[in-house]
Amino acid sequence: MKLKSIEELEDLRSGIIAKKDPNKTCIAVCGGPGCLARQCLEVRDAFVNEISAKGLADRVDIRTTGCHGFCESGPIALIFPQGIFYQKLGVKDAAEIVEETIMNDRIVDRLLYIDTGTGRRVKKEEDVPFYKKQMRLILRNNSRIDPHNLEDYLAIGGYSALAKVLDGMKPSQVIDEVKKSGLRGRGGGGFPTGRKWESTRDAIGDIKYVICNADEGDPGAFMDRSILEGNPHSVLEGMIIGAYAIGSNEGYVYVRNEYPLALKNVTIAIKQAREAGLLGENILGSEFSFDVKVNRGGGAFVCGESTALMASLEGKPGEPRAKYIHTSEKGLWDRPSNLNNVETWANVPLIINKSPEWYSAIGTGSSKGTKVFSLVGKINNTGLVEVPMGISLREIIYDIGGGIPGGKAFKAVQTGGPSGGCIPESLIDMPVDYEQLTKVGSMMGSGGMIVMDEDTCMVDLARYFTNFLQEESCGKCAPCREGLLRMGEILTDITEGRGRMEDLSLIEDLSGVLKDASLCGLGTTAANPVISTMRYFRDEYVAHIRDHKCPAGVCRELIIYGIDEESCTGCGRCLKNCPSGAIEGEKKQPHVLDTAKCIKCGICYDVCKFDAVRKG
Amino acid sequence: MSRNITRQKGEMVTFMLNGAQVQADPNWSLLEAAKFYGLYIPTLCYDEGLTPYGVCRLCVMEVGSGDRTKLVASCMHPVIEGLEVRTHSNRVIKTRKMILELLIARCPGSKKLQDMASMLELKEVRFKPLNDDCILCGLCVRMCEEQMMAKAIGYAGRGTDRYITTPFDMTSEECRKCGACMYICPACELRCQGPEAKTTLCSGCLNTEAVCAAKYDDAMCFMVPCLSCVKRPEDVK
Amino acid sequence: MTIDESRLDSIIDEYNAEQGSLISILQDVQAEYKYLPKVALEYVAKQLDIPRVQVFGVATFFKAFSLKPKGRQQIHVCMGTACHVRGSKKVLEEFERKLGIEAGGTTKDGEYTLETVNCVGACALGPVVVNNEEYHGQMTPIKVESLLKKA
Q1: Nearest CA of chain B to the CA of C19: how many Å?
Q2: Is the bond preceding A147 in cis, omega lying within 30 degrees of 0?
Q3: Mean pLDDT over residues A318-347, rounded?
Q4: Which residues of chain A lie closer than 8 angstroms to B54, CB-CB?
């Protein structure tokens, strides 16, 4: 049914809410990427079967939702209305939960999360330490709605911001609200969103475009994916409001092809919104028309750069162009274009609904609101976290993330993806916001936060990012293409024991040119991982070059494996698994490793249960 | 921004070029303005007859004032009222030398690059030579598309694997074998002068391959002597 | 090879033969043939009125596209940062040894294609290997053999 006015939308909403029984039991199974990979759909099916077998289908709803954030504990299910948090579920657990919790209102203790600090089992989601310090404005609704169900979104107040905007707000007022909120781009450099909208609005041209960048290319970041999968209408609502403010009638969502579920969910959401009169001609009966198309990316990190993304929307290779004339004036098809990423768009309805003053009260002086980070790497509680700007790294890593696994020492955290840098342990109390991150040589980026422990080699990491960027550079401009090639060569030399001390100054020279002379943001920030690791971990570079040692024991050419005679029990595991036949020894006798035959794959080190294989 | 101001016809833009107040046509790029005032700015991907592409980055200039300055590709950057521009600041010179060093490491046999190195006083190349032929300036691609209207060559691959080629790396009917791509190529400027010509560096020309010539045995080049004459099959072996 | 032009037409029509949809069209063509056959690319170029060299450029620029046929089994080793710091490189090397091919290659019998991906968003499970859309988390070099056997 097509809504023809704001009143019709509000009538529909109150109808949906009246129909819903707030006390009805609902099992919300997380269908985020982490849980999906752990076969959560089988768990969901087990719930469905169990519920219908018990004849409870009328009494219990089962909802497959977007990401709840706590990937480490997946598969996760929340039982509403109580809000019970069950984790690490297997197919077999469904029957017990239905029997105990749903039918008899009893808690299944063994499926609750154990607070590592207190050792107690935690019943509710909000009491789990991982969630306690978070401020989940964007992600919270993921567990409360079915992303395929527009009614669910409307029931939690969806599209009321759009209604408010269309109910008499002038485009300039909308822009003022966004400006006042202090919202800045969540995808990279952090440009003020309201100002970006304003310059696109002011640009000359009849046709203007609004684009949503969902080509999340940062390795180790999946927040945009989770928002688009879990709550696609919130992104659409933000885009429609933005289009109204800017004066645009056409929009694009550019989705990474590796995210099939995000693609599916946003496509469904667009269709639903169109049918409901929330997209298309005369939205909610107003004069304003706007529609959105979905385009798929082809797998290129550089398409995170706005001009490269626009080139790819035109059916060309994703090559950036000089931005001396901004995309707000000449973007897609040379027309004024406004590009924001998924998370930025998802913030817009909040600001309109709750007021810019409310929004700008969250965060620090120049960074407002919350930011979603993907907390991954060597961390106990891997997952998506949403925190207010200004929270300290320590709170994120220890209070929310639960610290480093295996009793290892924290070494550094990498933020900002391949364009960002590594932040060492000494800076762990710094507040996280745009300015502070830039000051220490990293950046906000899209929000990847990769935690590293003592076993991570920082030179190897720098080489990893350089190689990544070398493959992902479009190759158009000389400094980026040639500079990254040479940077990669030098770092490979260092990690393989051929480095020279003068290489360090050559790296610095190359970094300077990359930063100064590259055409686009990929090149100008490409040296950050190298520069920041050289700044904080120079001794590791020197150890590789001068002593031919990799202190973290990562760089293969610089380590030698051996078997400690005293600890070896002669169990034969290493011998059996060695792919190159380098290990010999009788059963129950200490084994010997022939370094000449050893290919340093490290399998023996991984399989030994007695720590008898040593790296030197 | 100056370009948003509607100007009377013939009205000029005034800006600071190396400390001197100068005037320029509002449609000029910084590079065009600098050339007009007689300054030597090294370029490899620029040609007056083609759309600027801004990729060799040798034409960089430093713009802005105080500690808020940045480098821009002058071939792409418009002249802007009041802008402070430095064409030969230390930062600019250092950057140009480094870029040239990188390009020479890729194509050490190019006379044009070697000449430019002596002009910029670049004395040392610290990277392993690749002995490639192409600096990916893209002049040939634009020549083919804009002047010859053929669109017979273009880029393939990306990053360090980017190269210039014909569709599917095969001889194509789009190519009229006009030789304009070879004519405009800066990396192999003197290649077609023949192995004995006094101007060549090292007969390196015999070891290099033109972007498309290698693919066409019957390439017609209007340079004298023609590339296909110099590069007889036995020479290539 | 011959191609079914009517199948290509229906893909192209789905996008109203818009030039801007080239990448989406190529994705669908690749889904149909498991790679991008030259004849199909030429047909798309003709129908969309895009120079062949541009279509070739797009097809070789984006990592999602392959101009060579891929193996029946596709093994994607995630090389995202989270997987990298947890040792995905060792896993990749073991696959390379076991299959006798390098990343990006296809075994001679056409059974396996080994590829790296930059992040599949399942960072909690790193290192991750995706085999025919099935995720395998917490991979180690020793698990490689059993994964290949199962596949």
Answers
A1: 17
A2: no
A3: 95
A4: 321-322, 477, 519
